[in-house]
Design brief:
The chain is α/β, with parallel strands linked by helices. The protein is built from 12 helices and 14 strands. It folds into 2 domains: 152 residues, VC0802-like (2-Layer Sandwich), CATH 3.30.2130.30; 180 residues, Rossmann fold.
Length: 383
Amino acid sequence: MSESFFSPCPRGLEPMLAEELAAFGAAHIETTHGGVGFSGDWSVCYRANLESRIATRVMWRVAQGRYRTEEDIYRLAYGPTWAKWFTPDETIRIYVTARNAPVKSLEFVTLRVKDAVCDHFRTVIGRRPSVDTANPAVRIHAFLTRDTAALYVDTSGDPLYKRGFKRAAVEAPLKENVAAGILRLTGWKPEEPLVDPMCGSGTFLIEAAQIALQVAPGLGRGFGFERLKNFDRAAWAGLRREAEGRRLEPRPLAIHGSDIVADQVRRARVNLEAAGLADCVTLARADFLELEAPAPSGVLVTNPPYGVRIGEADELAALYPRLGDALKQHWAGWRCYFLSADTELPKLFGLKASKRTPLYNGALDCRLYEYRVFAGKLRDAAT
């Protein structure tokens, strides 16, 4: 039986998520701002949770209708057969998002949706589930437009960019699904050398190693759909076995990470060890300005620092031209990619970006800048 789903993702990566979902067997794929709608059976939902590198969540649509008042939303939320999908022993949390909705208070809408779900349970079973805002067993999402409301059950649980193994975080982490999307945008292939010279906690390195070894990103974690009554345990076990069967044995890969800060290198090593990839990636403490390319060609990809504190902007204004000089001196023949929310980077870099791709890392409005570094003059390389 086909069900309707919606999968949000980082803005800018919707086309790549649509490609992934098509490969998983999804039908009626519709790309929208910030996500992709699709239909399919539960095996498609399970595969999307287990194998998508781009999705943030996979949400199952259980109701949709027009509304004029908050009470219309209450009636819509009372209607689904909640008690068929989970018990009142499971805790819940309601999330409400809106776009151009005429409601006065999202907090009041959230309360009315919660009341409707609990009232449904009281009517059917005689008792209601409790609310847990920190770690709910079942997450229910309502999305409002100007005149329609849709209700979803979150089949993922924790966001899918939480792969289930990362131990050491950094102050401004790069989301794993953003990193995976950027690797797709670069056109990197596992046989190519890859370098992240400002690796932080190692997100690019881990995502690249998992791609090279065909490790499904969800193999190390659990999912919200496992708490639902309609969970098909046998189908899920079969999909996990297939994913495990595709997984390659860890081996040394042409993936290199470095950072000038020793503690960042330590964090990256901790995270690689937690992911079982410590022997796959070469790590070192090094200054990017002095770093030599490990091969004649490959992909360099990094998320450099950008000024968020007083005084940092001046330091970075001096750093960016030196980064551009380092590319010209040491990285001829490489495709180089920098993700940054700092609009000063391309102005001060000293190289012309061959491509600028808008992306969001969380709430940060970023650009992925591509620099193709040629040996000699650019016009010589083009002849």
